[in-house]
Amino acid sequence: MSDPTxxxxxxxxxxxxxxxxxxxxxxxxxxxxxxxxxEVIGRAPEQTAADLDDAIARAKAAQPAWEARGHAExxxxxxxxxxxxxxxxxxxxxxxxxxQGKPLNGPNARFELGACSAWLRTAATTPLEPEVLxxxxxxxxxxxxxxxxxxxxxxxxxxxxMITIWQVAPSLRMGNTVVTKPSEYTPLSVLALISxxxxxxxxxxxxxxxxxxxIGARLSSHPDIDKVMFTGSTATGRKIVEASAGNxxxxxxxxxxxxxxxxxxxxxxxxxxxxLFWGAFINTGQTCAALKRLYVHDSVYDEVxxxxxxxxxxxxxxxxxxxxxxxxPLQNKQQFDIVNRLVEDAKANGGRVVTGGAPASDLGxxxxxxxxxADVTDGMAIVxxxxxxxxxxxxxxxxxxxxxxxxxxxxxxxxxxxxGDRDQARTVAARIQAGxxxxxxxxxxxxxxxxxxxxxxxxxxxxGVEGLKSVAVPQIING
Length: 479
Prior knowledge:
Layout: H1 15-22, E1 30-33, E2 40-44, H2 49-68, H3 70-87, H4 89-100, H5 109-125, E3 131-135, E4 140-147, E5 150-154, H6 160-173, E6 177-181, H7 187-197, E7 206-208, H8 213-221, E8 227-231, H9 234-244, E9 250-254, E10 259-263, H10 269-281, E11 291-297, H11 301-313, H12 333-348, E12 352-355, E13 371-374, H13 381-384, E14 391-397, H14 400-407, E15 412-413, E16 415-419, H15 422-429, E17 436-439, E18 454-455, E19 458-459, H16 464-470, E20 472-478
Parallel strand pairs: 5-6, 5-8, 6-7, 8-9, 10-11, 10-16, 11-14, 13-14, 16-17
Antiparallel strand pairs: 1-2, 3-4, 4-20, 9-19, 12-13, 15-18
């Protein structure tokens, strides 16, 4: 057997070699469990506030030279980083699958690694040219975008690698350095990703810090952090706003969602069932912009429920390293308990369980089956609270005005979708209060299409040209 610590040009490092690079020494750190089997994967480093201060100081010292390299050289390096991720994609995907729980196949771990390199390449190659504002023979004014300085990035546990790249790639492209803190639930895969990236990047341009919530709080309030990027819950996002006030750090916040979908009369239920299903249950429902409330017109209600049930019952769930599975466990006990509570509350209040409805204990401790709950109403906890898991409440309506009003009723607005005739759907979509409204699909993102929320789902945009601008400061050159 070949030495797994040697980088192979075709296969890269395996998960054991990647893990060996980043985990804490024997007897130190904190155990990280396999989401499916609950076996110990490895030990996450537990770094301190002093470690964070040192990391920020190093990043601050490295930033001027990194910015001075210019867009072309930074882009070239980021493209090489993308190549390095591709080389090590299989080992990273397997580590991610174990730590987060998502299967290797389907829109899951291997898909996430592909997205990492795709977003990196887009961030590297998207042009952001100076804009001439006035040129009338007397005044010549241009708008340029410059690096902010040091970006503090805080990523979640549901798409830990992809969202880290969403934060890091544009920041580095624009000449910032980055100190990034992964979720305490999924630190090992993120630290492994960073170790691969740092094979290419100059020292201290990108630094990962592993620790608990106190590290995130310190990162948000640190006087030498110039920009904070955060993806996570609305409650934590509000704390970051407060913590960052003292140093006036710029913010991009992508926070909780409870995305509504509206199915219009006249749809072909069988034709939309697969897209509806994955709009709700990608990553076993653990996605900020997943479909979480489905309003279906009375005329097609039963057909849509039956079509979704058919898809759910033929979609395999189980441990992520089994190549046959495309649905996995909940990542952590806290989220499992939320899902279980919401389903039990729905059953107690008259909700009709179409499929699922109880823990899948035969599969493992944190497995919960796809659960469709019909005949629920607005005001029930399963509708009003973000489930962030494998359950979907389905609400019957007769008047589209009521569906629109209920879709807009909550203080969230990350995404939404409308299903039906395209022209009719676009008319309805224009009235939905959400950062993105999809037509006949839900949750798809593209590296060139800006993405962000409204209301309690946050502010600021990521991706494309607008995403580059969000990690830069505008400068007017007048004369």
